[in-house]
């Protein structure tokens, strides 16, 4: 998947610039501590961003967020068709 396609999917949820940076780090598999270090913010700020990101994306964890961003509607359609 290209970087521009991922960016478009991330933009779909109305994330702020900083939230988009956090999402990109989550997709790379970084921990909260690593994200804080990379973005030069506190771990508590990372947790606040993640809470907002999860709410906006309608997910409850990092793995589901990454899957939703990377697979998008393809995964949703597959899940719905198997029910």
Structure description:
By secondary structure, the protein is mostly helical. The chain is built from six helices and no strands. The chain starts with a helix and ends with a helix.
Considering DSSP H and I runs of 4 or more, what fraction of the residues is helical?
Answer: over 70%
Q: Write the CATH architecture name.
A: Orthogonal Bundle
Number of helices: 6
Low-confidence stretches: 79-83
Please report the total strand number as a whole number.
Answer: 0
The arrangement of helices and strands along the chain is: HHHHHH
Give the percentage of residues in beta strands: under 5%
Q: How far do the termini sit from each other?
A: 27 Å
Reconstruct the topology from this structure.
Blueprint: H1 3-11, H2 17-27, H3 32-39, H4 43-57, H5 62-71, H6 73-81
Helix pairs in contact: 2-4, 3-4
In brief:
The protein has about 80 residues and is an all-alpha fold. Helix content is about 75%, strand content about 0%.
């Amino acid at each position: 998947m290209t970087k521009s396609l991922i960016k478009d999917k991330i933009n779909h949820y109305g994330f702020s610039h900083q939230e988009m940076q956090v999402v990109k780090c989550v997709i790379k598999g970084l921990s909260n501590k690593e994200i804080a270090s990379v973005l030069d913010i506190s771990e508590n700020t990372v947790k606040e961003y993640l809470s907002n990101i999860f709410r906006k994306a309608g997910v409850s964890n990092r793995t589901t967020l990454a899957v939703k961003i990377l697979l998008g509607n393809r995964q949703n359609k597959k899940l719905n068709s198997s029910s």
